Amino acid sequence: MTGRDMEIISVGLVEGLEDEYLRYRMETTAYLFDRLREHAIPVLSPAGGHAVYLDASRTLPHLSTQDNPGQALAVELYAQSGIRTTRIVLNPLHGPASGQHIELLRLALPSRVYSTKHLDFVAASVANVASRALLIPGLRTVSAPRLLSGFLAKYGPKVVPPDETCDQVTEETLGVLGSSSRVAG
Q1: Mean pLDDT in runs of 10 for the chain (185 residues)?
Q2: Tell me: domain 3-182, CATH 3.90.1150.10, correct?
């Protein structure tokens, strides 16, 4: 490790113990959280200390577990605005055997990097993608090793049979989307 890298780590360790810095981190994350909520984006509440978590399963309710909604949302957000995120899959209560899980997208905020204008751009970009949620196709898993599959899995486009379209809107789907379907980008 270079001397510069060690110095950066030591500054980070010292800053991480300062109340003012921690307050700044919490306020920055809360700012993004509030902007996303203003756009009716489903997020986990309360905001985290370093990240905001989007509920990809609720943002793309037309996609099943096998369609990888978290990965599909991450790909679409990156393709449309260059925002990199991380997909997180949670298996609540019933465990992995049940097939039920929640997919989240983590929007992590590096310290002292983004201005409020950057965070406004992120919120507007997420809202723009969410406004077209029903047009976002799922992704199929091409390969996923048992260990580290979150990092090493490969995905491909989902092949949609001709009689199935992502843009068919039903009353049930609109009820699930709620106000998210009316987000203007």
Answers
A1: 88 83 91 97 91 95 91 95 89 57 89 89 96 93 84 83 52 40 31
A2: yes
In sequence order, what are the residues at sequence separation of 6 or more whose Cβ sits closer than 8 angstroms to the Cβ of residue 4?
A: none
Question: What are the tokens at 83?
Answer: 């925002």
Domain boundaries along the sequence of the chain: 3-182
Question: How would you classify the pairing of strands 51-55 and 86-90?
Answer: unpaired
pLDDT of residue 178: 39
| Cα–Cα distance measured from residue 128 to residue 76, given in angstroms and rounded to the nearest whole number | 10
How many beta carbons lie within 10 A of that of residue 166, not counting itself?
A: 18
Distance (Å, rounded) from C-alpha 116 to C-alpha 121? 9
**If we measure between CA atoms, which residue out of 80, 60, 81, 82 comes closest to residue 138?**
60
